[in-house]
Amino acid sequence: MLNMYERASKALLLSNADTLPIDMSKLKIEGLCWKALTRKDAKHRGIIENEEFVSYADKHTGFVLDLLNGKYLIIVDECLPMTERNYIIAHEIGHIICCHTSLHGVLGKSNDYKTEHFQEREADICALLLLAPPCVLDDYGISEYEDIMKFTGVSEDHAKQIVGELQRYRRTKKTATEKALCKKFRAKKKRKGKGAHLPDANDCESD
Fold first, then answer.
1. Which residues of 153-170 are buried (b: 16+ CB within 10 A; e: fewer)?
2. Half-sphere exposure of residue 119, counting CA atoms within 13 Å on the CB side?
3. CA-based torsion, 152, 154, 159, 163: positive or negative
4. For the segment 1-44, what is each residue's pLDDT rounded down to a tens digit?
5. CA angle 59, 60, 65 (to 5 degrees)
6. What is the dihedral of CA 75, 78, 83, 84, to 10 degrees?
């Protein structure tokens, strides 16, 4: 699972993200081709039309379809609060960057329960690493879960989980990828000027 931490850091390094909070619906990662649609839009466009997929979509808050040839489509429930929707998209991106298996076109699924459970757990952690990269939080001096909520826009439960990931990060040696990612976010902070404040989740809508 350690490789997942490197995958998440590399994905952000190769993305257009350089400040917190990160709007996952606008995230673009070099070398990956994916698009996020609400469940309503997917149905309207005829992407979800057969009974099996309609039933599956109605029972899940989000999932990612493997369109083959390196293309993916993320479907998310439009009724979810923005915070939860952002997390769901990050979770589905986690399935993509971790190269998970697919079943009947749905990425992260498997005929083997243990494999599927492992992949779901891995995507959960990857979502947290994408939304609140530990190396960036540490570089910004953010460590309390209340501050993590404020600056990344994640829920209280997720913020508390991120505290654990941050503690794990501090026990390991920073990788070259993590150093480069911190430098990228630090550069954006400097461009905002000396008087720039730490990013706030409320800034997300103005980006």
1. bbeeebbebbbebbeebe
2. 23
3. negative
4. 558 889 999 999 999 999 999 999 999 999 999 999 999 898 88
5. 120
6. -60
